[in-house]
Description:
The chain is an alpha+beta fold and 443 residues long. The chain has helices spanning 25-34, 38-49, 68-77, 90-93, 102-113, 119-122, 125-145, 151-168, 174-189, 197-203, 205-223, 234-242, 250-281, 283-290, 298-314, 346-349, 393-407; strands at residues 18-19, 52-55, 62-65, 82-83, 149-150, 321-325, 329-331, 334-336, 341-344, 413-415, 422-424, 428-430, 435-438.
Amino acid sequence: MDAEATSDSLTQVPGTGRAVPEAEPELVRQWRSEGGELLELLSRVRERLGGVAAFRVGAAPTVLVTDPGAVQHVLARHPDRYVKRSHRARLLIGDGVLSATGAAWKSQRRLLQSQFTGPGMRRYEHRITEAARTTAGRWDGYARTGQTFDVGREMRRFALDAIWRSLTGHPLDDGTERELDAVAAVATALPTLPADVTDAQDAVAADLARIDAVARHAVEAARSGAAGPDGPGLLHVLTDAAAERPEYTDRLIRDEMVTLLVAGHETTATTLTWLYLLLDRHPGAREQALATGGEGSEQRRQAVQALVHETLRLYPSAWILPRHATEDDTLAGYTVEAGTDILVCPYLTHRDPGLWPDPEHFGPERFTAPDGRPAHPGAYFPFGIGPRACLGLQFALRESTVLLEHLLPAHTLAFSATPTKTLFGITVRPDGPTPATSVRPRT
């Protein structure tokens, strides 16, 4: 449809730009009658109207942004005009850095930033490696016995172990792992919880209590000065900050810890699960990565990282990024009024055939070949871009790469069943178990 030719479908708003093209009410009515997922509506809106388009599910229009230039404008160039109002996981993470706004967010992010870049990341290299070795040892055992295991569960165990070691200096023990299953339970339940905050809290009260108990015990241990075998962890950074900064109450330390647990393991585990499902359908990609360079070489590492990046292209850690316009603005030539809700959608940008040839194909070579991927920074942003890009980007890429360097040469998986649907909640995850066996153990 030619949006410029259908003036009756445009949202007329004041400003210097054109009105944002708006989807016809019939498109939304049809989507509602079908009971479709939000992604289905967004896909239809983008297909009809392009990379900046509006639709209405209520009285006011929401603007969908998938065009790379507009993405960069919203997230990187003008984050003060397009702000986060709240986070969908606030019930779980409270006032942690992921949901904080304004001056509080700036202060909290500044404290944690140094822990996830450069010298800070080197503090956690050994802990990530030990978590990967523990997982590799467990998989060697599965291979010897022919035991079936759930790949998604294994990836959650690994990623939780890596972030737990980084937080506390201790390896993850079985009891703590069982209690922290509550984190995944709450995260999974969030999209279906009642709209009323009190009712929502009541629905997951038992799981929240389990999480709080684990956090309280870990914070008390950090405060006591008792470091784990790997030395002090991120929790010590938070408890030390409390000595000088009164805003770091027990509650905020708990919220930051749970935020780091959620952001530090759920997204990585989901990405690694998708990666193995993709390798099951495209086994040549694994063989090509292992044929690149030698073990431990930079070429091999880049090839493995390309597997991760291509998985993140297809299944980005954050598939949708809500923002709210605080002032009138002109976005990609269109006028956006103050008060407008914005949905930036990496999932759709990453699958735009105008940016990514054959976008549904799993092609890790996009990230190794010259000119294999779009140069525009707004074309690939699985962790967001700009000031609110994910703090743990380097941590997540590092732990994924280290684990794959341990597992890919030693194990080829055979799935006995694979999920047939995709769930779009806090993350994009497979809908169902992922049982597999290792058919090529280390010799």
